[in-house]
Amino acid sequence: MHRKLPILVVLLVSGSVPALAAEMVDSVFQVTFRYAGEDEVLNDTVVPLLAGNACYNWYVRLAEGPAPKTATEILSLPVPLEDWGTLATDPDDGIDVSADGKVATRTFTPELDGEGWFSHSWCVAPGDPVGAHSIAIAVDGDKLVTYDFQVVLPEDYYWPSIAQPEPRERSVDHSW
Predict the structure, then answer these.
(1) Residues of the signal sequence (predicted)?
(2) What is the pTM (predicted TM-score) of this model?
(3) What is the CATH number of domain 21-155?
(4) At the N or C end, where does the chain have fewer CB atoms within 10 A?
């Protein structure tokens, strides 16, 4: 009588187990900036063009399993950036800027925290363009997620409401 072995047993015996792709189990895109004396951290896709203040941050959480060997982050801008600073000239930073100045590709080894998260942030700089941007994340060649977001002028941003102080009695500080 001839029995068929399950495919997993055959693969294990033959030593040719296919590599399992990393699985994303969660992701977050956040905008951070300082406003009215407070640090704002918002899950949002609209970034105010506040050079030296606003940043956009992504976070990806992978399922348990072998850590990926490489990750790729591709930042795409709506128009060419005239000045990428040292990102365009430093060969040791792991970032390649496209010839047309619209795309920055960062290749790195992701360092997962204890819960499987890894992340990166970009901060708004002078000369950054407004309009549609995107960041695509891949690990070991497999695309995980793309974050589409808008960078807008400060006057076009919907600012968080500022908490108003509680009213005080007139006699509390004897100011009447």
Answers:
(1) 1-21
(2) 0.79
(3) 2.60.40.1930
(4) N
